[in-house]
Amino acid sequence: MNFDRERLLGLTETYGTPLYVYDAEVMNRQYNRMVKAFSSVKKLKLNYACKANTNLNILKYFKSLGAGLDTVSIQEVMIGIKAGFEPDEIIYTPNGVSFEEIEMAANLGVKINIDNISVLEHFGHEYPDYPVCVRINPHIMAGGNSNISVGHIDSKFGISIHQMPLVKRLVENTGLKINGIHMHTGSDILDIDVFLQGAEILFEVAKDYHFLEYLDFGSGFKVPYKPDGDETDIEYLGEKLGARFNEFEAKYGKELTLMFEPGKYLVSESGYFLASVNVVKQTTSTVFAGIDSGFNHLIRPMFYGAHHEIHNLSNPEGRFRYYTVVGYICETDTFGANRKINEIKEGDVLCFQNAGAYCYSMASNYNSRFKPAEVLLLDGKDYLIRKREDLEDILKNVVEISI
């Protein structure tokens, strides 16, 4: 277990359970690992993909490290500005939103990344002098669950590379200024060579646009979910893509920024989800450990089939037994089936690893349950960065009528 068990247990005594805990030191490690991997590139910009975790304090922390911000909604843009990012440090990459939302982003002055030809044409007529990035779909699949590998030809994301002649004609007709090219490949990338094939497609597209300022290679880098789990080889990618980018830049004849949008890669391993065991229930074939949470707080196992390592913080030396860890939601609500965990008793605290990304951000109030608190570990101290909800939070937007 690569975490401080006693400290996590102490946090549950202070803040209660269920509880999300994030370690800034791990975020720093991941950020600087990427920076080091691409040290051969003159201008590198990592934009934190905040959909992974939008807590304002986490955005502020990445700002302090020198990151930009990748956003997918106007609300994330506004949170980013509140966190202290300048508009030109924010890239806005929506999908299927109204044109009014895109206009709001333009009025705020952020970088805009467009992945739809009709929207690009509309934008070109309304804002011919506002430079935009074009998001291409290179039609590659480099790994991941079918719900998150979204670079394939039938994906809703990106403009097909086969439609680039139409994009060029549109740019000529409207006078639209293209200042960036973006590549979308989906998530949990393992095959670096396939990713590099996608990069070659991006380079091929980019050479036809003469006023580019940056090339954005997206993200989707995989982190290990198990002690011996696979992960994206960032060092190998940095070596290969960094050299190829420098070669392209030299031929292009202009200094460009190499951009990435890591989200899960930066925050996933920093997060721990802590929950208390309410019941241990033996059936004819299974021992259930039922906790004081459910997929309302951590939906990834039920939604994606995602794996989170589960440890018993209260009894780390206990003999191993097999448990199915379940939640209190009134339907199938399984965090892990047939898991080998140190013996569990009612009242024990369980720790779920890799809980920094797409966990709290996808939480809900299903079954009218309160969302948990969030805590940030920073410079040796713990800070409450979101209070636990109460009934007032659940009811605050309800308009009660006389019946």
From TrEMBL:
Query: What is the protein's known function?
Result: Specifically catalyzes the decarboxylation of meso-diaminopimelate (meso-DAP) to L-lysine.
Taking the record's annotation, the residue ranges forming a coiled coil are none
Gene Ontology molecular functions = diaminopimelate decarboxylase activity
Q: What class does this enzyme belong to in the EC scheme?
A: lyase
Q: What is its EC number?
A: 4.1.1.20
Q: In which pathway does it act?
A: Amino-acid biosynthesis; L-lysine biosynthesis via DAP pathway; L-lysine from DL-2,6-diaminopimelate: step 1/1
Q: Where is the Orn/DAP/Arg decarboxylase 2 C-terminal domain?
A: 20-356
Task: Tell me the superkingdom of the source.
Answer: Bacteria
Residues engaged in binding pyridoxal 5'-phosphate: G220, Y358
Listed PANTHER family: DIAMINOPIMELATE DECARBOXYLASE, GROUP IV DECARBOXYLASE
Q: Residues where N6-(pyridoxal phosphate)lysine occurs?
A: K51
Which cofactor does the UniProt annotation name? pyridoxal 5'-phosphate
Q: What InterPro entries does the record point to?
A: Ala_racemase/Decarboxylase_C, DAP_deCOOHase_LysA, De-COase2_C, De-COase2_N, Orn/DAP/Arg_de-COase, PLP-binding_barrel
Q: Which residues form the Orn/DAP/Arg decarboxylase 2 N-terminal domain?
A: 27-268
Q: What is this protein called?
A: Diaminopimelate decarboxylase
Q: Which gene encodes it?
A: lysA
SUPFAM superfamilies, from UniProt? Alanine racemase C-terminal domain-like (SSF50621), PLP-binding barrel (SSF51419)
- Give the originating organism: Moheibacter stercoris
Q: Which UniProt keywords apply?
A: Amino-acid biosynthesis, Decarboxylase, Lyase, Lysine biosynthesis, Pyridoxal phosphate
Q: Which CDD domains match?
A: PLPDE_III_DapDC
Q: Into which family does the record put it?
A: Belongs to the Orn/Lys/Arg decarboxylase class-II family. LysA subfamily.
Binding-site residues for substrate, renumbered to this chain:
R300, Y304, E331, Y358
